[in-house]
Amino acid sequence: MTFQTMKMQLEQNIGLKAKVEYILDLLIEILLELKDFSVFHVITFGETILLALTIFRALWYAFFGVSNGGNYDYYFSEFAWICIFVGCSLAHLGSFFFSNVRIRCGIILIYAVIWTFLGMLAFVAGTTAPAVPTFAVFALASIYLAVRLWHEQK
Amino acid sequence: MDLSLEKILTYLVGSGGIVAGLFYGIKFLYEQLDKRRADKRTAEEKAYDAIWKLYEAAKAEIEKLKNEIKELERGDSLSRPTISKIYQAVRKLGRQIEILDSVFIKEFLIQDDDAEKQQLKDALKKEMEILWQKFDELEKCLP
Fold this sequence. Notes:
The complex is a heterodimer. By secondary structure, chain A is mainly α. Chain A has 5 helices and no strands. Chain A folds into 2 domains: 1-40; 42-152. Chain A starts with a helix and ends with a helix. The mean pLDDT of chain A is 82. By secondary structure, chain B is mainly α. Chain B has a single domain, classed as Up-down Bundle (Methane Monooxygenase Hydroxylase, Chain G, domain 1), CATH 1.20.58. Chain B is built from 3 helices and no strands. Chain B has helices at residues 5-74, 80-108, 115-141. In chain B, helix 2 (80-108) runs antiparallel to helix 3. The longest helix of chain B is centred in the N-terminal third of the chain and has 70 residues, at 5-74. Chains A and B meet through helix 4 and helix 5 of A and helix 1 of B.
């Protein structure tokens, strides 16, 4: 191995290290900005989980279809459910850019209505899957968060 | 399973009703808890004020008794009833301070996360120490 090749290899290694460090710095920067944004807009972990649940549900219905166990697709087509969940997620994401927290409170209450409605449909269908308690927990968590947000608005 | 549109709409409206009811219920409970927390704080502040007032009164009483003793020392005759009266007053004050001290230890010497409260407690503790010192001085002045 010549000196020149060794030098080149060394330079390449340093270049790679610098790139990794740059990417890590960038990631940390993004994380810090997200944290600042969430602190400034009073976005709690619970609210993020609720948003993630809705996005996850929209993706699930889009990729795996609406489960027939709970009569969810009796009157509402798959497409309608996907639209409802995508719409709610987008509205929720958009509401983070408003200073009025009660908009978010309203959207979370819509979540609660949707989860309760799905729970009722599952209950009527008599499904043995733990859909009813799961949706009940989602709905109660949504209502509690809505109350918290309602009080957050000065 | 046959579900009519009417039933579906009933479920939807029912869901809305349940959510609205729970929302107002939880909101009411939340407000009540908030109010209770605020009331508790107000009661605590009142207790602090009362303790401060008692300290001030005790300190003023000590000063008054000290002055009385000094006045009597200046005079030639120090009758037995007068000495007895002063002793009684000092003993009464000592008992009052002891009660104040026990209340203080019981209620206020608990470590608190609230920095503002802790500062107030530290200040009260300092005041109590000053009060005991003053009382000792007063006892030394006794004829």
